[in-house]
Amino acid sequence: SVLLFIWAIMEALTPRNVDEVFHDYEQRRKGLITALTSEVDRFYAECDPDKENLCLYGNHDGSWEVALPAEEVPPELPEPALGINFARDGMQKKDWLSLVAVHSDAWLMAVAFYFGAKFDKYERDRLFKLVNGLPTVYEVLSGKATKKKGGTSGGGESRKRKAEGAAGGGGGESLPPPPSFHSSEPVSKPSDGRIFAPKENIMTLQGCQVELFWPDDELWYPAAIVQVNQRGRIADVVYPDGSKEKLELDDVIPDGHLNVVKSSA
Questions:
Q1: I want to staple 81 with a disulfide (CB 3.0 to 4.6 A). Which of 103, 119, 122, 224 is the partner?
Q2: In whole angstroms, how large is the CA radius of gyration of the chain?
Q3: DSSP code, position 151
Q4: What angle do CA 166, 170, 176 make, to 5 degrees?
């Protein structure tokens, strides 16, 4: 009866849809990043090479722990890299932390797609795009996450700054009036809608209400696509604050960074 009770609790905590699995991924990722950055001294101390094989776990509640691997075979979830403590004193600290980060990223993907194994191909595709929209643990640790370009940026300029710089601009260019915005505030996860697929006709985006993911901010910004240049694959985008942007669609669509909230039809 005790085992059945534990099983019932596990079932209740198991993520069942894409949004729940992504939330679980975010929380576990948060814990791992905390261990390797703001609480790295504690993490380093807990990885004593004189102890048995240890693993770094990111937990569902956003915490982290260094612990022995699960005893049951097969384990309840995919297990992280085993014995991370043994290499601690045989490597430069920075290199060792980077190695742990890379293994942690692999583990996060394994857990997410373990939960998503029963999803159909469209749900798996959406899950991957949500996951891929966040910097990896390694990118955060190495500082590469802050160097990613955002959309039309060239030479490191973020899309946010480019959009702000274009506010009220346009040199007298006449564009169709934008549709009303579904929201005026950015969100951490895409709203109900659909991630625009690379194989879709970009002309269907004209007049759509969308959300654009900005990697620099890790936020989805509401916007309206008022005009699309099919040959150049560039869209004229307007944001709720009135700022405008020439958006190179091939910079956002392949990465799953364009969420269609409401179509023009």
A1: 103
A2: 22
A3: T
A4: 110
